[in-house]
Amino acid sequence: FLFNTLGNVVSLVRSDPARAEATLLNLARLLRASLQRTRSAVGTLGDELELVTAYLEIQQVRMGERLRWTVDVPPGLRTLAFPPMLLQPLVENAV
Q1: What is the mean pLDDT of the chain?
Q2: What is the pLDDT of residues 1-38, one digit of tens each?
Q3: Which among 36, 68, 65 has a CA at the least distance from the CA of 50?
Q4: What three-state secondary structure class fits 81?
């Protein structure tokens, strides 16, 4: 995933600098959040959805129109306790 993402950024730097920048920002957000979550025992569903959204936005750059996704979670559920890093592998496998 990491090397594919960096390869995509390299190819976008000249052709679409704005998308390259957005992809790098999403990658940084994903890596930062992943590191924080591996160190904590408890998180929220909202935290996990933020991580998954960053992942999906990166994958969107790779797959273009072939990947369509939505996140439809009522705001009240986003504050519920949720085990860290549980949702991401499910989304990765789905993609």
Answers
A1: 90
A2: 889 899 999 999 999 999 999 999 999 988 888 777 77
A3: 36
A4: strand
What is the spatial distance between Cα 58 and Cα 64, in angstroms, rounded to a whole number? 10
Task: Measure the CA–CA gap between 1 and 92, rounded to whole angstroms.
Answer: 10
Contact 87, 52 (CB under 8 A): yes
| Verdict on whether the full-model pTM lies above 0.70 | yes
Whether 72 has a pLDDT exceeding 80, the answer reads yes
Residue 7 contacts by C-beta under 8 Å, 6 or more apart in sequence? Answer: none
* Helix, strand, coil % in the chain, rounded to nearest 5: 75, 5, 20
Q: What is residue 73's three-state secondary structure?
A: coil
Contacts of 30-34 with CB under 8 Å at 24 or more apart are 30/54, 30/55, 30/58, 34/85, 34/88
